[in-house]
C-alpha cells in the first residue's frame, strides 16, 4: 500500500475531494417530477443523481415491459426484474430479452439506460467509465419508481419477487445494485460481469483485460481514480461483504462466467466467489468451460457465453412464482427501511441514503482521529467535543474500538486496501517428510510488489475431516521461520509441536528476517509492523485455501517479536479466533519506547511522537481489549527483561473490563511463569492446551 493513501496530510485533500466530486449538488435539491407508470409497454425518463463530470440535471430512460404488454396484466404474484445492458449498449442490448422474461417469469421487466449508456459516452467519451456506482443507483431508482408507481395505482403485485440480471457491464451493475441495496433483491444473476475495477482496467495497462475505463493515476488529473472509488467498485471486497452480512442480506447471487473469459477475467470471478462464500453470502457460481457448450444456450466459454435470455431462464426454478424454489425477499427492502448503507474505504465512507425512499449516494471523508490522553481506562469514549460517554455495552465499545483503529494507524499506518489482495500464486520450493508430517517450503505473493517465504506443516496422510490451523510467528532471529519450524532453538519449536498436535500450521518470515529480503528504506508501507501484518493476513488467506483447513478454527501464536506481531495481526483480522502472545508486550508506560521506533517496527513513534509513551496514540490494553470476545492468552515470564510482567498485568486488568462487556471473561487468560525472556516447555504446554480448548471443540 502506498504510504500516502490515508495518512493525516491527505485529510484536507480528501475533504476537498468530497466537496467537489463525491457530494452531488442534487442532494436535497428539487428534482424533476417522477413520471406515472405507462398503461402499456413503453419508456419513460426518471430523475437521476447528478454526475459530477457533467454537473446539472440528469434523466435516465427506463423501458417498461409488462407480463401481457399492459399494466392491467400485473397481478398479485407479479414481481419486478431489472435486465441491464452491456458496457457500450443501450436499452436491452446484451442482456436477457425483457419481453420473454416478463411473460415467462410474470415480472415487470425494466431495462435502464443508466449513466454512460451507448458507445459515445461509455467507450468514446472523455470521462472515465463509472464502473457501476452511479449506474447501479440509476437502476435502483428504476425499481423504486416502479414500486412507487404500482402502489399509487393500487395495483396488487409481489415486491418480494424483486430480481436483477445483466450481461458484461450490466452484470457489473447488477452486482453493484445488490451491494448498494443489500436487502432488496431475492435473486441476482450476473452474466460475465466485471467484478472489480482492477488497475489494468482502470488505467488500460498491458497484459490484462482489454477494457479501458480511462482513469488516471495522477492526483492532479480530473480523471484521477482515488483508492476509495476503486475499493467501492470491488464487488468482492471482503470488508464490504462482511457489512452486507451484518445487515442481513439474503439474495441468491448467481454468477455465470466463462472460464476462458479474458475481457472480464475469470480469475476475478473466482476471487469474488471465494470472498462471498467466506462472508457466507448465498452465492452460486456456474463456470462455463468448453465441455459445457451445447451450441444452443451456451456457445462460448469466453465472454459472450451464448443466448443470455435462455441462460437466465435456466434458473427459472428460483425466479418463477410457485416454482420448485420460487425465491422471495426476506423482510423489508432498503427502500422501505429508509436507512443508510455505509461502506468504509481507506479514506472515508460511502453512504447510500434511502431517506427519500430512492437511493442517494455520497462520500464522507475520514476526519482526524479523536485523541485519547488516557489509554488505560477503556470504559469511556470521546466525541469530537471531548465529551466522555461511559461504555456499557459491546456496541458502545465498538465506537471506542473504531477510535483505536484510527489512532493505531497514526503510528503503524493504515491497513492496506483490499485492492492489494492479489492472487497468492503459491510456489513450492521444497517438500520434506518430518515424521507423520510434511513440511513444505513455499513462497506466496503478498502484494503486487513482493513474495513471502513460509513453511507449511500438513499431515502426510489425508485427515478425516477438516483440521484447525495456526499462524505461527517467530521472534527476532536471523533464521526467521526456521526456528518455530524446529530447525533452530528447540525451545522455540512451537510451529512443529503444534503441527504434531494436530494443527495445520503456517510459519512466514517477518520482513528482513530469514529468507524474506526486504528494504524498509524503499517500502511503500508506513511501518515494518504493518508490512508484517499484511503478510500475515495473506498467510491466513493461504491457510483458508488449504482444503483440509477448517476456516472457522484459526489461531495465532508468537514469542517476543512474534508475540506482539500476533496481537497486531489478530486486531486487524477477526478470522483469528484464538491468540497467544508469549513475552510479546506490556503497556508502553512500563516499556522502552525508543526500542519500538526502528524500521522493523514503527518509525513514527520517534518522528511523530518523540518516543514519549504519553504521546503514542495507542497502547496494548486497547489492542487486547479490541480482540474481545475472541480468546486471548497473555503468556509472560516474571523475570522478562524486555517486557515488564507488571506491565502485562496492567494490560490484562484493563482489557478484562471489555471482555466482561461481552460476557466473555473466561476467554481472557494469563499465565505468569518463573523464567526470563523465553518460552519454556511448561509455558508452551499451557499455550497449547489453551489453543486446544478454543479451537478443537
What does this structure look like?
Helix content is 30%, strand content 22%. The protein is an alpha/beta fold and 697 residues long. The chain has three domains: 8-329, Rossmann fold; 341-412, no CATH class; 421-695, Alpha/Beta hydrolase fold, catalytic domain (Rossmann fold). The strands form four sheets. It has a nine-stranded mixed β-sheet with strand order 14-15-16-18-17-19-20-21-22, sandwiched between helices. Strand 21 (631-637), helix 20 and strand 22 (668-673) form a beta-alpha-beta unit. It starts with 10 loop residues before the first helix and ends with a helix.
Topology:
Layout lengths: L10 H12 L19 E7 L9 E8 L13 E6 L13 H8 L1 E6 L6 H4 L10 H20 L9 E6 L1 H12 L6 E5 L7 H4 L24 H6 L5 H10 L4 E7 L7 H13 L3 E7 L19 H6 L2 H4 L14 H4 L2 E6 L2 E9 L1 E8 L14 E3 L5 E3 L3 H19 L14 E8 L2 E11 L2 E10 L7 E7 L9 H5 L6 H7 L3 E5 L19 H18 L3 E11 L1 H12 L3 E7 L21 H4 L12 H6 L5 E7 L7 H17 L6 E6 L7 H15 L2
Parallel strand pairs: 3-4, 3-5, 5-6, 6-7, 7-8, 17-18, 17-19, 19-20, 20-21, 21-22
Antiparallel strand pairs: 1-2, 2-4, 9-10, 10-11, 12-13, 14-15, 15-16, 16-18
Helix pairs in contact: 4-5, 16-17
